[in-house]
Amino acid sequence: MTACAIEGGSTGAAATAEPEPERGTEPDPEPGPGPETRPVAEPGPRPGAEPVATDRPEPRTGPEPRPGPGPGLSAPVRTGPGPVPATAPEEDPAPRSRVAAPPPPAGITLTADGAYAARLTAAPGPPGERSWYPERWTLDGPEPYAVPLPLDQPEEPDSEVAPLADGRVLIRRRVADRQMFSLLYPAGPGTGELLLGTVEHPEMTLLPPSPDGRCVYALAAGERGSSLWLVAGGPRGPEEVARVAGHCSGGTWLDREGRMLALDRREPGGGPVKAVAVDLGRWGEVTPLLQIAPESDDRLLLADTDSGLLLIRSDAPGHDRLGWGVLGSCLPVRFPECLRLPEAVATPFAVQPGQMLMPESCAVALRIDGARGSWVGVWRPTGRRLHQFAAPLGWLSGAGCWSREGVLRLPYANAATSCGVAMLEAPEDVEPSCVTGRTEDGDDGTEPSGALAAPVVCKPVPLGQAPLHGAVRPD
């Protein structure tokens, strides 16, 4: 497994890998974006930090353009029963998210291949008296459908569920200061349950299902140390597989085998948050993964195992910004200007698979949260523009997956459709000019993120030897 400096902007030194624990979780959403975006004062980079590529264009005069859909994207098309969800708006996607709707459904977790999903949902009833139960969605057939998995007693709303590739659903329940784990599956007209065991810990969080489809891990985080547990897929029930010094959060898989896991860690004595790689094939060996600046919080949000594309959140530029890089690259992290939304927070949740060795061509789906609700963004590193679209009514926000052909599938549930999938085709981006390095048309509500540079072939560096200084983007 190799990783090194992450690709950066038109100029700047390398921003690479080095670990640390986290100061907490993702920052709370800023006030939401309205149709008119207003520039805000931006603090300077942290003292002592290496220069960071921000891909920032020359400032424009006059009001910022209104965000709107880019060209080449068809309206969402539903599969499954029910009415067609909200389509992409012509001018401003945010108002559509305010359509009257039932209480927002709980989140949903998808398998790595997007074939199954699971969520905790509630039967109709007055608030405070609703009965919660797990539900499995099947998404790889001609029509999506949901299978309820209730037991004799309702579940607590703080329980967590995760789907497996064989269609079973793992559930984590908290009972006093213990965590209980079971597998649920359809059994005739009822629900079968296989008890896996318990862990004596007051708080645990399920990590995203392993790419192998068989295993699920849970993280028990403490201030001075965190433990990683294999709670499904092991030979003998829940077992501890790794201990990591410091407080850990996050959880992103770096390979298809489910061996390399990235966590965001804060050292026991305090300090900034740094992403580290945990090798489950070597008894939880921890290796630094990200260090953009010595005092910056550098978190890994998403990784694509085919192309090596990494999506990063860091405050190295002076405040939290979204950046991208490539696992195994020797170029610094880049922070595209088009992903900087002064009155909203964008969080990536899915990367287009199958783009072998072509990270810049991967389509990335982002959840955009603002004062007017949540909607969907689509962006490619090579396109350098953010396309924005209204989400389907009842979208299970932050959930979705890409096909290899570039179709984004968004699960939703509302009063008219209990199980639906809206589909968006990734828009085409205007080709950058080979002379100026800028897009030919800048009237889509976004800014080009910087000049292009010739590709550079770099030899991958072992994860622990990633350079921290000196890798400058060539002219």
Protein architecture, described:
With 475 residues, the chain is mainly beta. It is built from no helices and 27 strands. The strands form 7 sheets. Strands 1-27-26-25 form a 4-stranded antiparallel sheet, with no helix packed on it. The radius of gyration is 22 Å and the shape is globular. Mean pLDDT is 76; it is low at 1-52, 56-105 and 433-475.
Question: Keywords for this structure?
Answer:
four-stranded antiparallel sheet; mainly beta; disordered C terminus; 475 residues; 0% helix
Structural class: mainly beta
The global form is: globular
What topology, given as strand order, has the largest sheet? 1-27-26-25
Number of helices: 0
Radius of gyration: 22 Å
Give the % helix. Answer: under 10%
Could you tell me how far the N terminus lies from the C terminus, measured between alpha carbons in angstroms?
A: 29 Å
The averaged pLDDT comes out at: 76
Content of β-strand: 25-35%
Encode the helix/strand succession as letters. EEEEEEEEEEEEEEEEEEEEEEEEEEE
- Low-confidence regions: 1-52, 56-105, 433-475
